[in-house]
TrEMBL record, chain A:
Residue stretches making up the ABC transporter domain: 3-234
Record SMART domains: AAA
Molecular functions per Gene Ontology: ATP binding
Domain of life: Bacteria
SUPFAM superfamilies linked: P-loop containing nucleoside triphosphate hydrolases
Protein's gene: ssuB
Origin organism lineage: Bacteria, Bacillati, Actinomycetota, Actinomycetes, Pseudonocardiales
The keyword ATP-binding is annotated on this UniProt entry: yes
Sequence intervals crossing the membrane: none
Protein's UniProt name: ABC transporter ATP-binding protein
Keywords, alphabetical: ATP-binding, Nucleotide-binding, Transport
Pfam family, one: ABC_tran
From TrEMBL, chain B:
Subcellular location, record wording: Cell membrane
Organism of this sequence: Lentzea flava
Membrane topology, as annotated: Multi-pass membrane protein
Residue ranges crossing the lipid bilayer per the database entry: 40-59, 104-122, 134-153, 159-178, 255-276
Family: Belongs to the binding-protein-dependent transport system permease family.
Taxonomic lineage from the root: Bacteria, Bacillati, Actinomycetota, Actinomycetes, Pseudonocardiales
Main localization, broad class: membrane
The name this protein goes by in its record: ABC transporter permease
Alphabetical UniProt keywords: Cell membrane, Membrane, Transmembrane, Transmembrane helix, Transport
Limits of the ABC transmembrane type-1 domain: 93-277
InterPro entries: MetI-like, MetI-like_sf
SUPFAM superfamilies recorded: MetI-like
Gene3D superfamilies linked to this entry: MetI-like
Name of the gene this protein is made from: ssuC
Length: 257, 285
């Protein structure tokens, strides 16, 4: 699976008074990659994900998966929002099962798949709970499991840990790394947290603001096996600092002061 | 430059008089959104029922108000008992209830799908919202003469008044609830592979259902009002009819008894719908 954005631009607003959110973005995501997109607010990060998800159509340019253009949303591109996208009337297991209920699967097959992802995300004990009974971290794990059970080509994460406290966030970062390695899925994640991007990504793309465009695209040469200790290693700290400088430079150039 | 700024503002601030301080208001029983003790709350609730009732007893017992205007509680009870024993109360109550079930039931059958349509599709909103927004301000009781001309004096005109009185409000309220379904839930459903109809059926409707029941509950109270209005004009049975008849013979005790029955049935409907709402909307608690 290769995801390609070619010269993608996006304008918002009425004719004649458009605001350019993304300007000529070119990104190629290779199979099994964990690509993190960082940028300050106004860099069009969320617009980028919504375009890849197919929820909006670019003003110009094309987005393709294995050469086929994206025409709309579909289960081949699973999406996880920052908060509150679980179905509040469905239990955890029925939230996770949603995508499978739409397919022609018998109950046993569905159950087997749901069980695997509940176990993978550590939700087996709360499978019959309603979303409001879960902690913020559990809710995000359920949302991730719900997207993954459809076996997407690429998992799209829109600031998925942005609303969590620091400790929970670190737990979730370790979990998503583990899920990524266990399932072999491709991940495209958007965040404003540089540390998170460098820690998680095999590659980091820095977006400049107003309008959003690619300012830098760098490989993260850290070992596959990353633990919380990785965050204290000199190599990590150096990478983090250089990406932070890039983001800051782009932020300055965007805001006149 | 930053240092200069700090110096300058420090200079200026030294010349400012201290800000006046406000005294804080004391905590009382009327502090906003502060729980009351259980005993105080119970006392207020009991008092709000007992005081008016006591006034009624005293006023009628002392004869300060003639019994023709304000019958004694005992007289109301025996009038009610009399009507219940003769069977006419049951017939009237059922006739009225059936009209509500038919007229308001029809209104729900029309307004809920229409409201879902309006809340889901911009086209539905553009097509219906202006018309319905206007129609709902036409009082249903003003339609009574017209409906009698169109539909005659029988059941259809009474059902129609109920329908007109509730259908527009229930449509707009349903549309509002449906519009409240979070965008993110709809978007995420598409990315999970749901088609338009499935999003409507499996996401929009379940999310809106508790709110729709709330709208129905509010408008059921309105329907219960309209049915009595409809029955005041040319009926041969029903609680409204019984009131008009009692008026003709100055039987205020009967009127009071019927009012009590109307109240009791209304509250029963409300409680029943509340229970349904609590069951359906458990997830929202």
């Amino acid at each position: 699976m290769t995801l390609e954005l070619v010269d993608v631009s996006m304008d918002y607003g009425l004719r004649g008074r458009e605001k350019r959110a993304l300007d000529g973005v070119n990104i190629t995501v290779s199979p099994r990659e964990f690509l993190c997109v960082v940028g300050a607010s106004g860099s069009g990060k969320s617009t980028l994900l919504s375009l890849v998800a197919g929820l909006t159509t670019p003003t110009s340019g094309v987005i393709t998966i294995d050469g086929r253009p994206i025409t709309g949303p579909g289960p081949d591109r699973g999406l996880v929002f920052q908060t509150g996208s679980l179905y509040p009337w469905r239990t955890v297991e029925r939230n996770v099962a949603f995508g499978l209920e739409l397919l022609d699967l018998d109950a046993a097959e569905r159950r087997r798949r749901v069980d695997w992802y509940l176990a993978e995300t550590g939700l087996a004990d709360v499978r019959r709970s309603l979303p409001r009974q879960l902690s913020g971290g559990q809710q995000q794990r359920a949302a991730i499991a719900r997207a993954l059970v459809c076996e997407p080509d690429v998992l799209l994460l829109d600031e998925p840990f942005g609303a969590l406290d620091v400790q929970t966030k670190e737990d979730m970062q370790l979990l998503i790394r583990q899920i990524w390695r266990d399932t072999g899925t491709t991940v495209l994640m958007v965040t404003h947290d540089v540390e998170e991007a460098v820690f998680l990504g095999t590659r980091v793309v820095v977006l400049a603001s107003d309008p959003g465009r690619v300012a830098a695209d760098l490989r993260i040469p850290l070992a596959e096996d990353r633990t919380l200790a990785t965050k204290r290693s000199p190599a990590f700290l150096e990478l983090r600092a250089s990406v932070e400088d890039l983001v800051r430079a782009q932020h300055r150039s965007g805001v006149a002061r | 430059m930053k240092a200069a700024l700090a110096e300058r503002s420090a200079d200026v601030r030294a010349t400012w008089p201290p800000l006046p301080r406000r005294t804080r208001s004391r905590r009382t029983a009327l502090t906003i959104r502060t729980p009351l003790s259980r005993r105080a709350a119970t006392a207020l609730t009991v008092g709000s029922l007992a005081v008016p009732f006591a006034c009624w007893v005293v006023l009628s017992a002392t004869g300060a108000v003639p019994a023709t205007f304000l019958p004694a509680p005992g007289a109301v009870l025996s009038a009610g008992w009399e009507m219940a024993r003769s069977g006419e109360l049951a017939v009237d109550a059922w006739t009225t209830t059936r009209r509500v079930l038919e007229g308001f039931g029809l209104a729900v059958l029309v307004s809920v799908p229409l409201g879902i349509l309006m809340g889901t599709f911009h086209a539905g909103q553009a097509a219906f919202e202006p018309v319905i927004g206007l129609l709902r301000y036409l009082p249903a009781s003003a339609f009574i003469p017209l409906l009698i001309i169109w539909l005659g004096l029988g059941e259809p005109s009474k059902i129609a008044i109920l329908f007109i009185g509730t259908v527009f409000f229930n449509t707009l309220m349903t549309a509002d609830v449906v519009r409240g379904v979070p965008r993110a839930l709809i978007d995420v459903s598409y990315t999970l592979g749901a088609r338009r109809g499935e999003v409507l059926r499996k996401v929009v409707v379940p999310h809106a259902l508790p709110g729709i029941i709330d709208a129905v509950r509010v408008n059921a109270a309105a329907a219960w009002n309209f049915v009595v209005v409809a029955e005041l004009v040319n009926s041969t049975a029903g609680l409204g009819y019984r009131i008009v008849r009692a008026q003709r013979f100055l039987q205020t005790d009967k009127i009071f008894a019927v009012l009590v029955v109307i109240g009791v049935i209304g509250v029963t409907i409300d409680v029943a719908l509340r229970l349904v709402r609590a069951r359906v909307g458990r997830w929202a608690a």
